[in-house]
């Protein structure tokens, strides 16, 4: 269970995706990009623009049976156009336990796997990432959050003794 939160803004996400693109320039050129849906879709779009890559595939892996329980990962959308991954770049937003990345790598063994954020358990499954995040930290992506009004300190009720 995560005990801390790390909020990522749209600006940070864009900057990190551009930083990853710079590193990826020396690993390419790539025939195409496979976005790991859904979290990898927006990072993949930014990276595809930077790398001038127009062939975009997607893979969708479901790892949750219900809200709590994790089941066997199931690929519910296959990246047909990517074959065995040869010449392709796979993009996800983050690796946590590494379960999703492992399933993607099994399906696309020849692809390069890159993501923006990596927690220690998932780190060995990525070829490239931008920022390491502690295992006990839950990353809040811009699509997970909304700006919220926070009352001024002076208006907060005094704590009762
Ligand atoms: O390393 P793991 O423990 O597998 O966790 C990482 C995966 O979890 C999140 O996706 P999620 O399954 O929540 O689905 P989504 O991308 O559709 O939101 C995230 O986008 C990664 O794909
Ligand atoms: N948004 C989000 N999804 C995840 N899926 C697995 N780990 C995470 C995380 O830290 N943040
Ligand atoms: Mg995902």
From TrEMBL:
SUPFAM superfamilies: PRTase-like. Guanine binds at residues 96, 139. Its EC number is 2.4.2.22. It is a peripheral membrane protein. Mg(2+) binds at residue 93. It is an enzyme of class 2 (transferase). Pathway: Purine metabolism; XMP biosynthesis via salvage pathway; XMP from xanthine: step 1/1; Purine metabolism; GMP biosynthesis via salvage pathway; GMP from guanine: step 1/1. One of its GO terms (biological process) is XMP salvage. It catalyses: IMP + diphosphate = hypoxanthine + 5-phospho-alpha-D-ribose 1-diphosphate; XMP + diphosphate = xanthine + 5-phospho-alpha-D-ribose 1-diphosphate; GMP + diphosphate = guanine + 5-phospho-alpha-D-ribose 1-diphosphate. InterPro entries: PRTase-like (IPR029057), PRTase_dom (IPR000836), Xanthine_Guanine_PRibTrfase (IPR023747). Residues 17-146 form the Phosphoribosyltransferase domain. Purine salvage pathway enzyme that catalyzes the transfer of the ribosyl-5-phosphate group from 5-phospho-alpha-D-ribose 1-diphosphate (PRPP) to the N9 position of the 6-oxopurines guanine and xanthine to form the corresponding ribonucleotides GMP (guanosine 5'-monophosphate) and XMP (xanthosine 5'-monophosphate), with the release of PPi. To a lesser extent, also acts on hypoxanthine. Homotetramer. Belongs to the purine/pyrimidine phosphoribosyltransferase family. XGPT subfamily. This is Xanthine-guanine phosphoribosyltransferase. It comes from Acetobacter oeni.
């Amino acid at each position: 269970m995560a005990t801390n939160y790390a909020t990522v803004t749209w600006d940070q996400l864009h900057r990190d995706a551009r930083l990853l693109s710079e590193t990826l320039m020396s690993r390419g050129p790539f025939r195409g990009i496979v976005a790991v849906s859904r979290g990898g879709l927006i990072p993949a779009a930014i990276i595809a623009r930077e790398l001038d890559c127009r062939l975009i595939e997607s893979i969708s892996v479901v790892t949750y049976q219900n809200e709590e329980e994790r089941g066997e990962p199931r690929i519910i959308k296959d990246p047909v156009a990517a074959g065995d991954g040869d010449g392709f770049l796979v993009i996800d937003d983050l690796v946590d336990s590494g379960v999703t990345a492992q399933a993607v790598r099994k399906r696309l063994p020849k692809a390069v796997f890159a993501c923006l954020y990596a927690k220690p358990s998932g780190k060995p499954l990525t070829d490239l990432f931008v920022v390491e995040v502690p295992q006990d930290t839950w990353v809040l992506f811009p699509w997970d959050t909304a700006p919220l009004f926070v009352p001024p300190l002076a208006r907060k009720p005094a704590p009762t003794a």
